[in-house]
Amino acid sequence: MHGSVLKTRTLKHRPLSSSTPNTSPPLSDTFHRQVSYARIAVTGACNLRCAYCMREEHESDSSGRTKMSFTELTTLISVLAEAGITKIRLTGGEPLLRGDIADLVATAKNTPGIKTVSITTNGLLLDRHLDALLSAGIDAVNMSIDSLRADRFLAITRRNEFERAKANLDRLLSLESVPLKINVVMLRGINDDEIKDFTNLTREHPISVRFMELQPFDDHQIWRTGKFLGMDKIRGLLQSAHPGMEELQGSGTEYFSFTLPGYRGSWAIIPAYTRNFCSRCNRLRIRADGHLVSCLYEKEGIDMLSAIRNGESRENLLELVRQSVRLKPEDGKTTDRGESSMGRSMSEIGG
Ligand code: SAM
Ligand code: SF4
């Protein structure tokens, strides 16, 4: 699988800081995987309409019934931390649509046991929130942008917001104090000729660009329409663009990581569909509706939001987290825990 011409080096990115030491014992599932990471969709709403994620008319509970309040979210974070989670990622929907996002980061950072708090964002509202996020101590930012061309950005996202996204990306690139990853979903015939435009960013900047496979999580199943570009094809495109690229020791999801001599950053392939990372999965997810799922493919999950609203004791909330971890399937794609959630938009699951 790994090309023989590729050499192996060690990743050299901006280090993550750590804060309060974790006092909770590690959280392990029945297959001896240590679960330490929670991704929280802090809203299901979004200011873009990426074709592979949401329908134009996508609605995320406009009644606000399932919108988690600040207190509900921080309760959840402290319960997760007490259960053994050390790393939190705030995602969505678009997390920066929450006016209280920086306060959430600050509170999560101050939660005993939580070592890192990061965010995945489309970047549109960073001009409004970035300073506050930095003051709150955000540890890392992932910004999703699938094209560096205005017309394509509009075609993919259905919103004419390229200039704003690009200006905010440029600001992030200039900020070397915070680790930055750029997420690019690869779409056949749409952005697959932009690989070099993205990798060129890593020459000057110590960032990682992640070329991601399309996954079957959108509410209108666009992934069935021939836009999917698999890991091998992406790798071939990268190799053509950079015949001298060297392979790095990637981590977890960044399985195939590369760079070139003299480049400050790197790029990676995220083969989220063709490869099965279940054996190394360390994560839980809180969906935008407040349901806790221990697997991307899980349909129902545990309704933590209702449990909190019903005034369940802290011990009971902790037990629900442990129960979710106990039920974490060995292999998500073959789980027998109900139908998969493939028809559900990634904006509800949190990516
Ligand atoms: N709105 C934020 C953003 O776009 O970064 C955070 C939420 S979004 C659901 C998180 C990540 O999921 C983004 O990088 C997005 O590109 C990715 N994503 C959404 N739908 C996807 C799909 N069907 N296949 C692969 N990645 C997807
Ligand atoms: Fe919004 Fe992110 Fe989904 Fe795009 S990928 S529609 S930015 S939630």
From TrEMBL:
<keyword id="KW-0949">S-adenosyl-L-methionine</keyword>
<feature type="region of interest" description="Disordered">
    <location>
        <begin position="328"/>
        <end position="351"/>
    </location>
</feature>
<keyword id="KW-0547">Nucleotide-binding</keyword>
<feature type="domain" description="Radical SAM core">
    <location>
        <begin position="30"/>
        <end position="246"/>
    </location>
</feature>
<dbReference type="InterPro" id="IPR013785">
    <property type="entry name" value="Aldolase_TIM"/>
</dbReference>
<dbReference type="GO" id="GO:0005525">
    <property type="term" value="F:GTP binding"/>
</dbReference>
<protein>
    <recommendedName>
        <fullName>GTP 3',8-cyclase</fullName>
        <ecNumber>4.1.99.22</ecNumber>
    </recommendedName>
</protein>
<feature type="compositionally biased region" description="Basic and acidic residues">
    <location>
        <begin position="328"/>
        <end position="339"/>
    </location>
</feature>
<dbReference type="InterPro" id="IPR007197">
    <property type="entry name" value="rSAM"/>
</dbReference>
<dbReference type="InterPro" id="IPR006638">
    <property type="entry name" value="Elp3/MiaA/NifB-like_rSAM"/>
</dbReference>
<keyword id="KW-0004">4Fe-4S</keyword>
<dbReference type="InterPro" id="IPR010505">
    <property type="entry name" value="MoaA_twitch"/>
</dbReference>
<keyword id="KW-0408">Iron</keyword>
<dbReference type="InterPro" id="IPR013483">
    <property type="entry name" value="MoaA"/>
</dbReference>
<dbReference type="InterPro" id="IPR050105">
    <property type="entry name" value="MoCo_biosynth_MoaA/MoaC"/>
</dbReference>
<feature type="compositionally biased region" description="Low complexity">
    <location>
        <begin position="16"/>
        <end position="28"/>
    </location>
</feature>
<dbReference type="GO" id="GO:0046872">
    <property type="term" value="F:metal ion binding"/>
</dbReference>
<dbReference type="InterPro" id="IPR058240">
    <property type="entry name" value="rSAM_sf"/>
</dbReference>
<dbReference type="Pfam" id="PF04055">
    <property type="entry name" value="Radical_SAM"/>
</dbReference>
<dbReference type="GO" id="GO:0061798">
    <property type="term" value="F:GTP 3',8'-cyclase activity"/>
</dbReference>
<keyword id="KW-0456">Lyase</keyword>
<dbReference type="InterPro" id="IPR040064">
    <property type="entry name" value="MoaA-like"/>
</dbReference>
<keyword id="KW-0501">Molybdenum cofactor biosynthesis</keyword>
<dbReference type="GO" id="GO:0051539">
    <property type="term" value="F:4 iron, 4 sulfur cluster binding"/>
</dbReference>
<keyword id="KW-0411">Iron-sulfur</keyword>
<keyword id="KW-0479">Metal-binding</keyword>
<dbReference type="GO" id="GO:0006777">
    <property type="term" value="P:Mo-molybdopterin cofactor biosynthetic process"/>
</dbReference>
<dbReference type="InterPro" id="IPR000385">
    <property type="entry name" value="MoaA_NifB_PqqE_Fe-S-bd_CS"/>
</dbReference>
<dbReference type="GO" id="GO:0061799">
    <property type="term" value="F:cyclic pyranopterin monophosphate synthase activity"/>
</dbReference>
<feature type="region of interest" description="Disordered">
    <location>
        <begin position="1"/>
        <end position="29"/>
    </location>
</feature>
<keyword id="KW-0342">GTP-binding</keyword>
<dbReference type="Pfam" id="PF06463">
    <property type="entry name" value="Mob_synth_C"/>
</dbReference>
